[in-house]
Amino acid sequence: MTPEELLAARDRVVPDVVAGGLRVLFCGINPSLMTAATGHHFAHPGNRFWPVLHRSGFTPRQLKPSEQDQLPGYGLGITNVVARATARADELEAEEFRAGGRVLSAKVEELGPLWLAVVGVTAYRTAFGERRARIGPQERTIGGARVWALPNPSGLNAHWTVATMADEYARLLAAVGPAGTPEPRPTRSPQGGSTTVTSTPNSQPGPSSSR
Predict the structure, then answer these.
(1) Please, what's the b/e burial string for 43-79 (b: 16 or more CB within 10 A of its CB; e: otherwise)?
(2) pLDDT tens string 43-58
(3) Residues 6 or more apart from 160 whose CB is under 8 A from it?
(4) Can you spell out the DSSP letters for 111-136?
(5) Is 110 within 8 Å of 25 (Cβ atoms)?
(6) Which residues contact 24 (CB under 8 A, 6 or more apart)?
(7) Which alpha helices (DSSP H) does 56-160 contain, by range?
(8) Measuring CA to CA, which of 65, 81, 129, 187 is 20 to 30 A from 18?
């Protein structure tokens, strides 16, 4: 990937990986330039989302970013608070987070996941006005889903290691419970309007950057 190709990806929107009735909808801050250039979430080489997802027990093996479409088969999905790609999350304005929070609430209400997991507590605080929020389960619900704030897996987040993040993600998994048997179902991303072939777990009802 050349620097020119990365720069050309600025402000690009990456389609969600979603389905109705997910166990967990993971929500990043916004796409990195690498994610926008490849179309694969959490694609930056320094991002630890995929190894943490595996080590915590959400997936039986470590998926590659290019294998993201397998996630709905495990009852998992990915979206973002802010849709547009930037080189760093600090390029985003507070109002973008608040507007993204409103879009996310509507999206969650439409898709009906059991849990919304925001990977970045600072983004969660800004988007939803929860200034005192801490890592872990939250008291509020969003769009009918329970909420868990997770540490940002970006390599720039030096406060958390892969091991300590995996422990926190495993706490969420314990709260979510085991996966059901998935069945195929195509769905359309409410955010970007792009179709992704996904699946719906039949155990549920209803339908930083540096990522």
Answers:
(1) bbeebbbbebbbbbebbeeebebeebeebbbbbbbbb
(2) 999 999 999 999 999 9
(3) 151, 152, 153, 168
(4) H--SEEEEE-HHHHHHHHT-TT--SE
(5) no
(6) 58, 75, 76, 77, 113, 114, 115, 116, 117, 172, 176
(7) 94-111, 121-128
(8) 129
